[in-house]
Amino acid sequence: MDTTSPLLELRNVAKQFGGIQALVGIDFDVRPGEVHALVGENGAGKSTMMKILAGVIPEYEGTMVWKGRPVRLRNPRHALDLGIAMIHQELSVMPELTVAENIFLGRQPLRAGTVDWARMFREAEAVLAELGFDHVNVREPLERYPLGVHQLSEIARALTSGAELIIMDEPTSALSPMETRHLLELTRELAATGKSVVYISHFLEEVTWVADRVTVLRDGRKIATLEARKTDKQELVRLMLGKEAAFFEESYMSGRDVEDPHAGARPVLTLERLTRPRAFSDVSFTLHAGEILGLYGLIGSGHFELGEAIYGLHRPTAGRILLEGQPVPAGPRRAIDRGVAYVPPSRRSGLFLEKPIYQNVTLPWLAQISGLVPQVPKEVRVTDEVIRRVGVRPPDPQKEVLYLSGGNQQKVAIARWLVRPPKVFVVSEPTRGMDVGAKEEVMKILHELSEAGVAVLLISSEPETVLAASERILVMAKGRIVREFVGETVTKEQLLHAASGELAEAR
Ligand SMILES: Nc1ncnc2c1ncn2[C@@H]1O[C@H](COP(=O)(O)OP(=O)(O)OP(=O)(O)O)[C@@H](O)[C@H]1O
Ligand SMILES: [Mg+2]
Question: What whole-number distance in Å separates Cα of residue 223 and Cα of residue 242?
Fold first, then answer.
């Protein structure tokens, strides 16, 4: 094949879901050896377009051309047989199985008719090492590991599938900066060996670094395809939003004064020497009314597990959690009743995808809203108000969460807790998967809550997120608090250094 003709083309592709026009008149192509990025706001149509390419959505209008020939994909298996693999935004791993099995799901190496475990383990180890992830034991169940490893398993699965076109739908949303770096470099290496990659991300710095070309979608339409070298973040955001945008991310790059105006405020949540083996040890801090405290750490540093413990999802083996001076009894129900709200880092674990938005929002509040008899109109009314506040699109309480775009699902997970403002709001990765505008909306909501006196614990592995909102920042590494930044200028680099420097020393 001549290298200038595309590996894959979409011609005049359109897709409707019920009344929603998800894609209109899309022309798109991927060249051999190219990294082609796809950007756009939440709900712009990126995942829909990729699901068409990967055979997940077989019904659509228009034509798909693979190596010069029109094809009609019947299912993902068909796509894989042709040479198209996809890493899904919503992970499709099986946590009970070993890491190696997840990587080789459905195509385990065989020997004399049975699974060749030794070879599977060896090959799984090799591919993870290539991703810079050699501390994972591929013989252990995947569920023993944090979300970043789940994401890496899915990436490794696509990489070992032998596909010529690999679609990555937000592959780095649960990865640490180091892992992200590895993946970006690996993506360039893939391209250098002639493979093609479609790369979807809301992190525009990644996009301009890794891509050859960038296509911008807005409201289901293709707005432009640009040479990555000739564009920048500013232009991409303008094309994505259709207007000049305030730059939420600019503020942190130059460093930011972090003050502690809450030192004298009323303590709401106090952790005393909290310990849970393999997760965190000897963690103590106090969170005050009206404060936004950032808790930053690399994936695996124990910060997410700490959030779970505060919400009562599991019991620490030592130490105490005090809410307004009183110990919190174990269990999320009791935590909620005492005024603790929690957003988990993975939206899948907190949402019932097949249920309508309103049931997801009112779940913690059924006793207050409905009493013993369900009162759907009231639930819908309550939901309508809070999903409009966070800008869920479409703002339809009856819509099943499954049908929302990834970023909009995350907004539902936050909206739930606006029904009755909590005393303590523990949010893990609140802006994961969100576009620039939606991130800003969420930060605004956290600020409004803190101004109303809510104590916010913002847990994240994205330096941008903690820097954008926090007034004080604690850094965790290997289960311990290793640094506190108060009343000084903090940069992304300093955070990374604090979080990873300690790691290096501990080894
Ligand atoms: N199975 C479905 N049924 C109904 N509507 C859907 C379905 N899948 C997607 N949509 C709608 O199509 C539109 C495009 O969604 P899509 O998931 O492609 O967005 P996206 O660009 O990937 O967004 P995000 O950045 O949030 O992941 C949205 O309005 C979404 O609600
Ligand atoms: Mg998507």
Answer: 9
